[in-house]
Specification:
CATH architecture of the largest domain: 3-Layer(aba) Sandwich
Number of domains: 2
Strand order of the largest sheet: 3-2-1-4-5-6-7
Strand content: 15-25%
Helix content: 25-40%
Number of helices: 14
Largest sheet: 7 strands, parallel
Shape: globular
CATH class of the largest domain: Alpha Beta
Order of helices and strands: EHEEHEHEHHEHEEHEHEHEHEHEHHH
Length: 359
Amino acid sequence: MEKIKVFFVVPTLYGGGAERVISYIPQFIDKYKFDVELIVIGFEKDSTYSVSGIPVRFLNKKRVLNSILQLVQIFSKEKPKIVLSTLSHLNVVMGLISLLFPKTKFIGRYTIVSQNEIALKDKNESFSKKITQKIFRISTNLLDIVLCQSIDMYNDMQINNYKVSKYKLRVINNPMRSDFELKPERSNDEKVVKFITVARLVPMKGHERILRAISTLSYPYIYYIVGDGKEKEKIFSIVNELGIQEKIIHVPYTAEVSKYLSQCSFYLQGSYAEGFPNCLIESCAVGTPVIAFNAPGGLNEIIEESVNGFLVENEKEFIEKLNHKQKWYPEKVRESVYKKFNLDKIIKDYENLFFEILE
């Protein structure tokens, strides 16, 4: 049987959850059935994720738009059966490129629920922004498959900005990493409770409402903020305003996320919208439960009430859960996500999708 050539395309191997997933998945695709290659638009020197077992081609471009000609040349020469890309701006380019390659199936993997992303933007959008949104919608609909990370995203893709036909939509969740070790069971009577959030410092991630909630706590705690971004100055001005500077530890970047998750009592999620938050799965994978504000983007598919955490509707409920006393069992927290998102299951979902679209 001839192998099916599949190209995974990602803007960079730096930073975000989308990049992490798309650098991770192709390493485990069945090499007897698929000829897999990862194409990275950006520079190798900027990479923070390691990839092994598959070829990786860096185009060394600063912007996705600068890579169009090179991508067309690669596809023309190598004739992949399937091209899978991730993140909206790259998917738009792939949708347009797909017009040149009718024999290749193009899959665009999306990462956020659009209705909430739009809600946080300026209501008085310029004409150019409206045109850009229209181009995004048209190009997205040129793709053969639009891949969603959650049921919320699936529903959103049909009714909001993109208006994608349900016949093109598929849902595949993000996988639980197999290399995250379960933490030992600890006493609930720790002298200092440790919290953690791993996310870009941007308005969408809701750091401000987490900070205001934890500032009300009367017991000793430490809060690890892992990540960097354009809102850093604003977020830490709020920390100063609340007088909790000594309780905050900022880690701009770490390759040892699992280590930080393991030493904490709870993962705190403040996002207003998500695609399918990797760090919630990773936190549960090490046995650390989650307290999260309810928001579209797959949280209700991950969190099982009182088993691996809590979903709350407002700041008052968030504070109540921060003060809630309950015995947590790392094994149960881990099993809650393993049964749904283990790597073998998710890889099989991808492979089945590849076979399906080539039928």
